[in-house]
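Q: Could you write out the predicted structure for this multi-component system? I'm mainly interested in how the pieces pack against one another.
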Amino acid sequence: MRRAVPSGRLHTTALCAIACLFACGNGTARAEDANSWRELETKYIFGFTTGSGIGLEGEKEFTVESLGRFGKRDGSYAATETKYEFEFTPSQFIQIEFGALGSTHNISGVTGLDDRNQAALAGAFAEFRYLAIERTSNNPLSVTLAVEPTVRRIDETSGERVRNFEFETTVNADLELMRNRLYAGFNLLYEPEVTQTVIGDTQREAAFGGSAALSLRVVSNVLIGGEVWYLRHYDAANLTSFTGDAVMLGPTLYVQFTPKIFMVAAWNTQVWGREIGNPVSLNLAEFQRNRAKLKFAWEF
Amino acid sequence: MLKRPTLAALAAIAIFQVSPSQAQQATEIRLTYSQGQFQPSQVSAPADKPIAFRIKNLDTKAMEFESSSLRVEKVVAAGTEGIVNVRALKPGRYEFYDDFNDKARGALTVQ
């Protein structure tokens, strides 16, 4: 009974309440002309969808980003992965990030997964981003290509000890629809991975999909929005063995506390999904019922 | 055997954006920062040529020259001068500001 649907509504309401608090608490800003606001870095304004921003040359940033996954077909399932990340921008076209991963797993009574209650250092990652198309006052589109190799010693889903190698490749695009006010974001994702279990099995799989997001700058330092993801899962890296897909949908929030400190929050709920060979609603074998993102960043 | 040098060259181009345009002499733009304002606050430069901002901070406290569209930032201490190099730009309007002072704004028009 403590499944994620009511929890999802609670988190969605909480996100909206936080956004309203910031929006209503800044009445003078509301009356401002958006043209007087500073231009925005778009990388983090779309929730799970990543914008095209790569930061400013010479800029450094430390971020803590937690991703939570909640709800399987039965039992109780909660898993988080936290990135402790350093990112810097060595040129006006490249951004580099790297860091460590921590994970927690609280699993009880889920079919196919061992019960587990653990926290662990899960692995490490790096990300390289290249700005391929830059936005100007005459061109609202900006596109960045990104690759993110990741090594894990703890399986993301089950929490088991494994050796996992993942190579996420994304295209991050965004459009400024209304100057300084309304933005659209689009991601294309291909994420192959290979996992070696403790008993020596090797599993290859991949995720492929895309997202679309809208983000509205309600006051100069707060954006609220929504995003939708379509994700497909394959039991092969070359996308030949399709096992299921899912659609996830939810609200996003971005708050700039000071010019150097900001936060991102997002919540996605699976609204449609299918498992090949299993006539049930939703895909809870490869994806979760809900996922959440909370990120805090300090630039210096 | 050719693969490694080729990959290294591509990486160098990506990181440092080595291009014929950067071999050109940069257009220098001189700005002063005084009493919390840029002078001049509206400047222009030709398209497709690199730009060097030379910012002289005449105030008694540090300022940070910053621009999201130019993708640069640099702290200029009180009474000193800072140089910010910018890639060759496409035509358009590029805003800049002092990150420590919300009222200090300016814009570069590239034609």
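A: Regarding packing and overall arrangement: The two ends of chain A are 45 Å apart (CA to CA).
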